Amino acid sequence: MKLTLRIWRQKGPADRGGMVAYDVPDASADMSFLELLDVLNERLTESGEEPVAFDHDCREGICGACSLVIDGVPHGPQKATTTCQLHLRHFRDGQTIDVEPWRAAAFPVVKDLVVDRSGLDRIIEAGGYVTAPTGSAPEAHATPIAKADADAAFEAATCIGCGACVAACPNGSAMLFTAAKATHLGLLPQGRVEQDTRVEAMIHAHDEADFGGCTNTGECTAVCPKGIPLGVIGRFNGDVLGALWRGR
Amino acid sequence: MDPHTEYTENTESAESAGRTGYARYTVGAEIADHAAPAGDLAGRWEQRRLAARLVNPANRRRLPVIVVGTGLAGASAAATLAELGHPVTSFCYQDSPRRAHSIAAQGGINAAKNYRGDGDSVARLFKDTIKGGDFRARESNVHRLAEVSTQIIDQCVAQGVPFARDYGGLLDTRSFGGAQVSRTFYARGQTGQQLLLGAYQAMSRQVAAGNVTVHARTEMLDLVVVDGRARGVVVRDLVTGEVTTHLAEAVVLATGGYGNAYFLSTNAMGCNASAVWRAHRRGALFANPCFTQIHPTCIPVSGEHQSKLTLMSESLRNDGRVWVPTTGGDTRAPGNIPAAERDYFLERMYPAFGNLVPRDIASRAAKRVCDEGRGVGPGGLGVYLDFADAIERLGAPAVEEKYGNLFAMYERITGEDPYTVPMRIYPAVHYTMGGLWVDYDLQSTIPGLFVIGEANFSDHGANRLGASALMQGLADGYFVLPTTLTHYLAAGPFAPVDADDPELVATQAGVQDRVKRLLTIDGDLSADHFHRELGLLMWEKCGMERDAAGLREALARIPELRAQFWSRLRVPGTGAGLNQSLEKAGRVADFLELAELMCLDALHREESCGGHFRAEHQSPGGEAARDDEAFAYVAAWEYTDGPPILHRERLTFDNVTLATRNYA
Predict the structure, then answer these.
(1) Distance between CA atoms of B596 and B166, rounded to whole angstroms?
(2) pLDDT at residue B3 tops 70
(3) How far is CA B361 from the centre of its chain?
(4) Buried b (16+ CB within 10 A) or exposed e, B377-398
(5) Average pLDDT across chain B, whole number
(6) What pLDDT shows up at residue B2?
(7) How many CA atoms does the CB half-sphere of B504 hold within 13 Å?
């Protein structure tokens, strides 16, 4: 199949950047979207042009590195699918596709389609952990956990930290990311103990890192490749209010 | 180590191999693991822990450590060393430490908890692992691994890792290949992700506490060795292009395996061998480089554009049945082939373990039926993994509960629905058992250089059992290294390294020169072009089945390819910023050297064992034929400017009986 890609090219943070069109006449329906970029890049390289920079690594939808806005939608048109798992069979022959980087105040562009998402790491560093130094652990079966809680904690924990939620949010908020981690840990007895200090520290780090406030538009959950439910944000807000109320 | 020059391998292809060709080698002095205590196997780790020196908490701040890599081994080591009070500097090439490729491990982690009361124990996990590795791993290491396995589960639960639980709220387990007990703990199909996030979060806590400094998007390009000790690393900041040196009292490599030497593998695109290869070139011995694991259940190649292969978790073999049509050329849809005309070949060949035989055995069996012309799908390179019986027995919702995310992933990639059509799978390169040689303390032959996780060679022999990689990575990082590295550091701090130290300056200059060279060849071919060609060659000649003629061909071809690389490579752009072509080129350059050592090792090992299957050495039934008399040793290779030097470490088995593996 023949596709035309209009790709955001930007030499560096200081460059204004712009869309550049490329034809790929020999794409195949079985290719993944990133393999399409591979084909284009190899051609650019061998003709001496700089290939398109983009983040990618595992290519199986779990590392969270890939981060393309495809035709205006983070991770493209397929529901619950990362860019690396998006295959060309979902596009039409002859289609023109726009490819842009994540866009958010907290994610400055590094080059082309690569952005800096280190703000997400700052949020985890603030409180996205259980204080359990190595060697201090009790026997694993000492505390049974209701299956429903364990399952719900797991669902929230499947977040891959890609930042699509931020890219989709009109406010550039990372609340879905932040709340998913706080929900995961807060639902488990091991994590519940320090939930008050955790949620306060995480929301503070979230705002410090230039992420915007949440206004419950729900764009985040619509594009989330792992289907993290919007409900985690409600639970998180409840936890923050509770923590403030208790005045810890 | 004083090598004597005895040429044991022929020199037939040395001419075409060129100056640095590896078609021959010399044999050096034997080596031994002096760090492991003697005596009763079950007491060795306790003995080592008691004998290890400690460092006063106040002094730990003066003993900084560098950890390269942030996967399970690297992140758990960084977190634990920092908790102890050592300043840790951590490096990863990804944009966040949370993305290291441990994250992609699906199925689970083994531990000898015996929660099922099905006869499991530390002794049984030890035996299964030694046997699964086809008797090419050290008894002491493997026993320690089995011992600490139970602590890993405790630690991870305490961190909030959301393992699967039953209705009573207790931990659930499942079975993996090479075991008859159910000892694999899991978090649906994302066990690696959950364990890695646990370690990443523990490390993040130490980042906030100021004890760990993370340099993401930073790649190690060389090891700094001063006065015979590993004292630092030279790294390149992938965003600014700046090359800098970081010094410390010790260096830990946790940089993963080298499966990407094959181009197509289940590894992430960025996984590379540069850190271990550079350390090898600085004097660390490389052990058993030919021991690579070909995983039986991967999604088959779909075309020339293929950039990587995707694993379907081994856990699927708990409920999926592997089969091909009884006769070749059967083009009927799988649903139209009656039971009598299906060959459930694993169940037929290995009735005791059935679909859950170890990976190397399942892979070769699949290759064999495909070689017989009975493979399915495009090109006949595939076998069915069929869930129809499981769906009938358990119902589709129960199957979805267990494997839902894997089924969804399969459908996204292939466009086929595995609930109604059997999956098609084929073996693919997955893991490398070989790696830098380490002693019981996980220290390489360079003092102060410790190697953990997949990057070392230590625990899996010639074949790793499923769900054991996560176990080893975390055992090394959380429990083993903190003890053994502390012992080493107790002799420090070592003499400060001057900024103008000649060894340091030479290392830095070497890195700068190499970057410059890669940028200025100005040829006409991309690094990917060479990588793909190398990968195909390795898959054909040094893959699931190897023979002397093929390996000699590869040994002749690789130096040619390398010469072509250094004369025809094109890397657009400059070194002064983000340049992904430059990163790739450096990694491929190192694969082009390592691949040769892999082939040489495979050629020298005139036996079949585990993942190393030499066509010349098989039983009449087509099983791997080991030669314990001649090859019950670890092959540890020393780098030289000429032919490499082989050092043998003899393996002794006092607690298990050397036997032919039998899973029938």
Answers:
(1) 49
(2) no
(3) 18
(4) beebbbbbbbbbebbeeeeeee
(5) 94
(6) 37
(7) 18
User: Pick from B435, B382, B102, B136: which is nearest to B261 by CA?
Assistant: B435
Sign of the dihedral defined by the CA atoms of residues B581, B582, B585, B590, in that order:
negative
Query: A75 or B15: which carries more pLDDT confidence?
Result: A75
d(C-alpha A144, C-alpha B422), whole Å? 37
Choices 1.10.287.70, 1.20.58.100, 2.10.260.10, 3.40.640.10: CATH for B501-630: 1.20.58.100
**Closest Cβ opposite residue B167 in set A138, A147, A190:** A147
Query: pLDDT digit string (tens) for B196-216?
Result: 999 999 999 999 999 999 999
Rounded Cα distance, B475 and B148, in Å: 6
Residue pair B558/B511 in contact by the 8 Å Cβ criterion = no
> What value, to the nearest 5°, has the Cα angle with vertex B647 and ends B644 and B648?
140
Say what the pLDDT of residue B22 is: 62
Cite the residue boundaries of each domain of chain B with CATH code 3.50.50.60: 52-294+431-489
Q: Is B595's pLDDT higher than 90?
A: yes
Chain B (286-345) residues lying within 8 Å, Cβ to Cβ, of chain A: 302-303, 305-308, 310-311
> pTM for the whole thing?
0.96
| B157, B164, B269: residue with CB nearest A57 | B269
User: A117-246 sits in which CATH class?
Assistant: mainly alpha
- The β-bridge partners of B174 are B184
Per-residue pLDDT, averaged over B39-54, amounts to 97
Name chain A contacts of B79, Cβ cutoff 8 Å.
Answer: 134
Percent of chain B whose predicted confidence (pLDDT) is above 70 = 97
Q: Which of the following is catalytic: B60, B229, B359, B557?
A: B359
User: Per residue in A167-180, is it b (16+ CB within 10 Å) or e — as a string?
Assistant: bbbebbbbbbbbbb
CA distance A243 to chain B (A): 20
Interval B356-397: pLDDT, tens? 999 999 999 999 999 999 999 988 999 999 999 999 999 999
What is the CATH architecture of B297-430? Alpha-Beta Complex (3.90)
Count, residues in chain A: 248
In this complex, the residue of A45, A116, A138 whose CB is nearest that of residue B158 is: A138
Two structure tokens written together for B98:
């949370």
How many angstroms separate the CA of residue A141 from the nearest CA in chain B? Answer: 6
Answer CATH for B52-294+431-489 from 3.10.129.10, 2.102.10.10, 3.50.50.60, 2.60.120.970 = 3.50.50.60
CA distance linking residue B367 with residue B426, whole number of Å: 8
DSSP state of A53: P
- Tokens standing for residue B376: 């399915």
Q: Between A and B, how many CB-CB pairs are < 8 A? A: 218
Residue ranges covered by each domain of chain A:
3-111, 117-246
Element (H, E) at A9: strand A3-9
Sheet with strand B292-298: strands edge to edge: B292-298, B423-432, B383-386, B321-325, B342-343
C-alpha–C-alpha distance, residues B229 and B232, integer Å:
9
pLDDT of the residue at B21: 54
Q: Check the CA dihedral B393-B394-B397-B403 and report its sign.
A: negative
How far A147 CA lies from chain B's nearest CA (Å)? 5
Q: What residues of chain B, 583 to 642, have a C-beta less than 8 Å from chain A?
A: none
Query: Which residue spans of chain B are classified as CATH 1.20.58.100?
Result: 501-630
Which CATH superfamily groups domain A3-111?
A: Beta-grasp domain (3.10.20.30)
H-type alpha helices, B282-358:
345-349
Whether the link from the prior residue into B493 is cis, omega within 30° of 0, is yes
Q: Does B113 touch chain A (CB under 8 A)?
A: yes
**Check: complex ipTM more than 0.90:** yes
- The pLDDT tens digits for A33-72 are 999 999 999 999 989 899 999 999 999 999 999 999 999 9
